[in-house]
Amino acid sequence: MRIVLVGPPGAGKGTQAQFIATHLSIPKISTGDIFRANVSGGTELGRQAKKYMDRGDLVPDEVTIAMVRDRLAEDDARDGFLLDGFPRNVPQAETLKKILAEWDARLDIVLELFVDEEEVVRRLSGRRTCESCGRIWHVDFDDKQDDICDECGGHLFQRDDDKEEVVRHRLEVYQEQTAPLVQFYEDEGILVRIDATGPVEEVTQRALGALRPQDR
């Protein structure tokens, strides 16, 4: 099965991607993993990407697409995969469609994890990170009333990208870039929207339930 997973920051894409991929015995492929593999492996594409990453710039579409194409051509992805973080826009989606068509393949389903904006803000802005061990706590979910890590006694702090104003900006950017992508896949007739609120296990079951009609 060939799946694309989309959703805003804080929707739990990484967690759900791993559960779904493991359940279906297909590789979970994320752009972050691909970038790191190419950079650490010293590939030509990795060297190109690193120039942009070192400057804090976005890696251009052509480099990202080339990396994804190479990854999808590997043996473990021949019979299926789950893409997390790609495509991010309509041009990337159109290119992915062409790549798969060259291999006489197509996407089976696109899962959109939907979470209310205020819930995303609560999830992300409530996170606190231990400066000593890196453990992440949540002021609501872990009932943290102090700024001390229960694991190591280190000091907890709020990362800049978890601050409310930054989270809301990230959501604005997501909506600008991804709303057309969601519409693209809805027009393709392969988009399924999943309510990503509630316990992780419940969200996973909703996602697997949506996949069952496809996995026949």
UniProtKB/TrEMBL annotation:
Annotated organism of origin: Actinomadura vinacea
Sequence ranges assigned to domain Adenylate kinase active site lid in this UniProt record: 127-161
Tell whether Transmembrane is among the UniProt keywords.
no
| Region NMP, residue ranges | 30-59
Gene3D superfamilies, per database record: P-loop containing nucleotide triphosphate hydrolases
| UniProt comment concerning the protein's domains | Consists of three domains, a large central CORE domain and two small peripheral domains, NMPbind and LID, which undergo movements during catalysis. The LID domain closes over the site of phosphoryl transfer upon ATP binding. Assembling and dissambling the active center during each catalytic cycle provides an effective means to prevent ATP hydrolysis.
Q: Which UniProt keywords apply?
A: ATP-binding, Cytoplasm, Kinase, Nucleotide biosynthesis, Nucleotide-binding, Transferase
Can you say what this protein is called?
Adenylate kinase
InterPro entries, per the entry: Adenyl_kin_sub, Adenylat/UMP-CMP_kin, Adenylat_kinase_CS, Adenylate_kinase_lid-dom, P-loop_NTPase
* Pathway terms, separated by semicolons: Purine metabolism; AMP biosynthesis via salvage pathway; AMP from ADP: step 1/1
Q: Which CDD domains match?
A: ADK
A GO molecular function annotation here is: kinase activity
What is the gene name?
A: adk
